[in-house]
Structure formats: structure tokens, C-alpha cells
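Sample entry copied in:
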Amino acid sequence: MDIRFIRHLIIVLIMSFSYVVVATAQDDKTIHIIKRGETIESVANKYGISIDDLIKANPSANDYFYIGMKLTIPDSVEKKDVKTVPLKVENPTATDTSYEYYKKDIEEKDMNRYSNYGVRYNAPFESAGSGYYALEGQIFYCSGFGIVMGIGSNMGIVDMDYASVSFILGPAYAYKYNNILLSSAIELVGNYRSLSDEEKDLGLKSFTMGVGLCPKIGYVINRVIPSLGVDFMIYPGNSSKITPCFNIGIKFIIK
């Protein structure tokens, strides 16, 4: 028999055997097909493996993740019957990790969740003890724009002859950076005070309107926001002078 023929035959047999071994090994691997609602994390939990091990066995899953995708489960891992509640993935092409960062980023930018209600005290710098306290609410939309509204009074702070009630309303804007909440509002402030006959004879008005630019800075601690701000108020009916004021308050996120 020709030696070359025997040599070629041996090579063919070895290659065939190798192919059979590899094919058999591939058949033994567990294949998981991604279903709606599943994530990298939920699949890893189902088979009792880490996300890193699953991605090592399926490198493409680190870049994209979609319904119907086939994932190879590593041979060295025994399947575990673990009941998990998978996260709902709105974007099926995102990996679990990128989706979580995406979801967190969207939540951080949703300013509606930082709408707040509470109390504040406003007073001119030149007469800090002659201000007024107010119940105030700041309602923000997702983009950060919103409104500020409130009602206040200086009763108990000044003489009753000068006590008044204030109404606050205006557009506002807020931006959150880490735990710092920056906001600003253009507040329309209406003051009502009961006048004596002498004051009426002098031409004073019971109701006056003012407008102010009111920037604030707050610090978000769970659902509590202590804040500090500076207001620049002007009352056209009384004087054209801009009065710098301060305001200090504490607000609560109610959801």
C-alpha cells in the first residue's frame, strides 16, 4: 500500500475526529434565546453566573442586546433554578449596564421629581426683623421650567397697624447638579393691608404690586431641601428703588 495514501488517510481521520469532538462540544453548550423583558443581569441570575462571565462567553452582548439574540452559557457553570423579576428594558438594543445608567440619567434630569413645598422667610437686608413668612410651592416640569406660588404674612412680626397679607406667583426654572438644586424665579408679589382713614386721605393704596428676581440655592437631603436666596424686589407704586432682600427656607419633596 502506498505510504502517501496512508499518511493522507490518517490526516483525514484526525481532522474528522477533531471536527466531531468540536461539534459535540458545541452541541453540549447551553444556548439561551433572549425574550422580551430580559436583561443581561436577569439571564446571568437565571443560570447562576456573573455578568462578566456571561459577556466573556458572548463578547457581542457588551455592545448590543436584543430580543431573539442567542447567548452561549459557559460549560463550567451548572444551571440554577433561580426565580428573578427581570427589569423591563424599553430599549432592547441596550445592555443592562448601559440601560441602568441611561435610566438613572433620565431620572436625574426629570426636574418634576424635585417639585417641593414648604416655608420661607423674606426680609430686606437693612431690616432683617421686618420681613414676612410664607407657605410656598415650587412645581417643576421635566425640563426644569415651572411655577412658584405662595401666600405669606408679616402678622406677629410688625405692629398690627402695618400687618399685611402677601400673594406670590411667577415663572421659575431649576437645575440639579449632584445634590445641589439651583433655582430662580420672577415673582409677582401682591400685598394687601387694611388702611386707616388718615392713610387713605394721604392717597396710600390698600393693595400694591411688586416684582422681583429671586435666585436660590438648595441642598437635597433625601426629601428635604434647605435653601438660601437673594431677592431683588421693586414696588413701582411706592418707589422705583430696588430693594435687596434675603430669603431662607426649608422645603419638602412630596410624591
